[in-house]
Amino acid sequence: MKYVPKIPDGDVNVPKESILKTFLFILFTLFIIIYLIYLLLGFFTDIIVKKIPWQYEKILVYKYFLPEKDRDIIKKEKKLQKILNGLVKYTDMKNRDFKVRIYKTDEKNALALPGGDIVVFSGILKIIGDDERKIAAILAHELGHYAHRDHLCAIGRKLILTLILTFLTKTDNQASSLFASSLDKIQLKYSRDQEKKADLYAVDLLYKRYKRIKEMIEVLNALSGYEKIPKYFSFFSTHPTFEDRIKTIKKYAKRKGYRI
Amino acid sequence: MDLYILLTLVILGFSSGTIAEKIHYNSIKKRETELINIPAVTSGDFIDEEKEIENVYFLDGACVVALDYFKMFFAEIKKFFGGRIQSYETLLDRGKREAILRLKQKAREKDVDIIVNLRIETSTIGQSAGKKKGFGCVEVFTYATGIKYKK
After folding, report:
1. Is B73:A174 a contact under the CB 8 Å cutoff?
2. In what order do the strands lie in the sheet with A99-103?
3. Inter-chain contact B36–A23, Cβ cutoff 8 Å?
4. Which domains does chain B carry?
5. Given an 8 Å threshold on Cβ–Cβ distance, is A13 in contact with B92?
6. In chain A, where are the structural domains located?
7. What is the pLDDT of residue B101?
8. Which of A35, A59, A102, A178 is least buried, going by the fewest C-beta atoms within 10 A?
9. pLDDT value at position B1?
């Protein structure tokens, strides 16, 4: 047999198609699939959560401790409770018992905890002062979260997110960490929508109670001075920017014919 | 922040990896043409029995290739669906061809007339010892027998 030296035609082992194109296609498809799973599960969570009876929600909650309070705070809590009770009368959640607690911290926030405990941080009270209507604006917003069962939805969705992430990170690679951080951003978008809805609920409630919503806008205006995240970073935030919230509220009030 | 580091590494890996691959393939093709006159076969049947053998050599060539970040990332997401992992294919192809070229280079230095019984082996290194996270690299090792006829 005679050996004839020859270079083979073409590189059979080198793929012809563009590797970058394949890469982007797979990445995109994976994002879509994971996003759809998340949306679907999230959708069912929202439905199920709204069917959880109030009594069960109370059982679900574990006991937590707030630091010891001084007399001043107890007095304030009583005042807030009175305002809250006044608001609850105008909602369809009269059969639930809500409690206000004040937590001493410089942070400017308020929380709706499962079970009906509204925690108001003293930092926010310092800014808005003693005006009843302003305090009511904050409490009404938190009541909005209860009306929509947002606190439970948020927990449910967090659970799903953790589930998906655990499944992904089980494979323990770089790709899953990429999906993990992008899913987090989706969660934030959901959270911003909840805040918007709670705002609008608060507007309705305040109007029913006080026939005006000026204070709500004033509170948001006052808080906007303390906004930590620049506007163009709002994508990474749990709340919409105050500017956005005020705009949405004004638009809503105009549509409903409320006096501002 | 991890996301940005990861993306930077992937982009860096893709650009540097693509350039390096292009340069390497050009060099491989050039050297393959240069060394084409030394036949290398996997069987031992090609030894010309009519000619007298002057010397027999053990020839070897090795090449260690490592992944870049893009190739690794590509393989990881491809694993979700399965199928060809194109990024590894070119890498191993380069490794094999480079190792054979190094073997042929040695053969030329020894003035070998024919390379017979050529074998290619691969082994993973850098990821051994049960380490889960390690930068994958592969050693491609080729060995063969070089025959030099009496002139």
Report:
1. yes
2. A99-103, A117-121, A110-113
3. no
4. 2-149 (3.30.110.70)
5. yes
6. 49-59+87-93+126-256
7. 95
8. A59
9. 56
